[in-house]
Specification:
Elements: E1 5-14, E2 17-18, H1 20-29, E3 34-36, H2 38-42, E4 49-51, H3 57-60, H4 66-69, H5 75-90, E5 105-111, H6 116-127, H7 138-142, H8 146-155, E6 161-162, H9 170-183, E7 189-196, H10 200-208, E8 239-247, H11 248-254, E9 260-269, H12 283-297, E10 306-308, H13 317-328, E11 337-339, H14 342-345, H15 352-366, E12 368-369, H16 380-383, E13 396-397, E14 402-409, E15 413-420
Parallel strand pairs: 5-6, 5-7, 10-11, 10-14
Antiparallel strand pairs: 1-2, 1-8, 1-9, 3-4, 7-8, 9-15, 12-13, 14-15
Helix pairs in contact: 5-8, 9-15, 12-13
Length: about 425
């Protein structure tokens, strides 16, 4: 049916801002949400800094009933419900109180590892022969689809309600999957997003791999350094982002505010062949994914004027820029404006794509390109490919017309979505 798909609602729970207003201000002003975590020091982590949303206790009562709060111990689920409900409200959509569900609205909310703290708590109860003390909420807090099930019940959605999981590309992949469902006429609205737990049980594996920065424990806001010559590894983060995608017809009928249009996208895998591996991207697949996303969007490579990359602050940043250069056929002053948000809140793992998609759409809505943090010493290999003016250090005025947002994940999986400025 090839319906046009637009973004009508945004919600976010990020380390540098909980709620859309706080988050927008943080992105515009370059406020970091990366902090030192004494618990990580206590546990002997080499990297003791991370990005974690700061949730006030009294805030939870706005999103959960007293019964739901009883025994709630899943940070990712909390982040996802906050972001998802905020996006739904931002879109001006009503919650089905009771009776017939909304058959035209669905949810596709992804995650990686959900409920790690709850799972640990449950294991201790089981080992202590206290199975009956687990509580009725333990299963839904640790199952991967717990977040979509929670949101589905809260909002009363009757279309597809499911969860995807593709490591760091989860959130961006979910946007594409939701877009495709609406475009095919199978739904009018899809709440898409992703969330990730926080804490040592999530971050320990990365610390043991020695791919996190170890020299910034006393200077946390400078630890995540995408595209920098002094980049020393990614800073782990957590949180959630959510977007309401809607057919243009439905949005116009409701007179909804439209942030941007989803023009198309692509997902693929490098098959862990060639230079690709469990942790490294296959450049051929990355380039192919970007080109297919552009082709599926009906635009030309030369139309892309803004890039929000994956760019995690590792030695692979220069390779990613090279892949963008090859995929778009541009370099130097002709290269689009490019930024990474990992300096603002770290690498939010399964939530990275959705949080960064929210920020990307905000750039279109605000007519701005948010600045890059901590890359005053730009990687010389990147400067050989891109003029420094295309990597702004602070937020600049620029109206993105066609923005490419990409995420690449463990397992050599890739996702790229093209957002456009909405025009009648």
């Amino acid at each position: 049916m090839d319906k046009r798909v637009v973004v009508t609602g945004l919600g976010v729970c990020a380390p540098n801002g909980v709620g859309l207003e706080n988050f927008t201000r943080a992105m515009q002003t370059g406020r970091s949400g990366i902090r030192h975590h004494p618990k990580l020091k206590q546990l002997g982590f080499s990297c003791q800094v991370a990005g974690e949303p700061l949730i006030k206790d009294n805030l939870l009562a706005n999103y959960f009933t007293p019964l739901q709060l009883r025994g709630l111990n899943s940070s990712g689920l909390v982040y996802g419900v906050i972001a998802g409900r905020d996006a739904w409200k931002d879109a001006g959509l009503a919650i089905v109180a009771k009776g017939t569900p909304d058959w035209n609205s669905g949810i596709l909310f992804g995650t990686g590892i959900l409920g790690a703290d709850k799972f640990r708590e449950s294991i201790y109860q089981i080992d202590a022969n206290n199975v009956r003390k687990l509580g009725s909420g333990s299963v839904m807090q640790v199952m991967a689809s717990g977040i979509s099930a929670y949101l589905g019940g809260i909002l009363g959605c009757g279309n597809q309600v499911t969860t995807n999981s593709s490591a760091c590309s989860t959130g961006t992949e979910g946007v594409i999957m939701g877009y495709e469902r609406i475009r095919a006429g199978k739904a009018e609205r899809m709440l898409v997003g992703s969330c990730s737990d926080s804490g040592p049980y999530i971050w320990a594996g990365f610390d043991s791999m020695r791919i996190l920065p170890r020299k910034y424990n006393d200077d946390p806001t400078r630890a995540s350094r995408p595209m920098s010559a002094s980049a020393a590894g990614f800073v782990p983060g957590s949180g959630a982002g959510a977007l309401v995608l809607e057919s243009l017809e439905s949005a116009q009928e409701r007179n909804a505010h439209i942030y941007a249009e989803v023009l198309g996208g692509a997902v693929n895998s490098g098959g862990q062949r060639g230079e690709g591996s469990m942790t490294a991207p296959n450049s051929e697949a990355v380039i192919r994914c970007i080109r297919e996303a552009i082709g599926n969007s009906g635009v030309q490579a030369s139309d892309i004027d803004t890039i929000n990359g994956h760019l995690t602050a590792t030695g692979k940043d220069a390779l990613e820029i090279e892949n963008w250069k090859t995929a778009l056929g541009v370099s130097g002053m002709n290269f689009p404006f490019v930024n990474s948000f990992k300096g603002h809140f770290g690498h939010c793992l399964a939530a990275a794509g959705s949080v960064e998609c929210v920020a990307s759409v905000l750039q279109i809505a605000k007519g701005q390109v948010f600045g890059n943090l901590n890359c005053e010493d730009l990687n010389p290999n990147i400067l050989e490919q891109v003029d420094a003016t295309k990597i702004p250090q602070k937020t600049i005025l620029h109206q993105p017309r066609f923005l490419a947002k990409a995420s690449f994940g463990f397992g050599d999986v890739n996702a790229c979505v093209i957002f456009g400025q909405y025009c009648d």
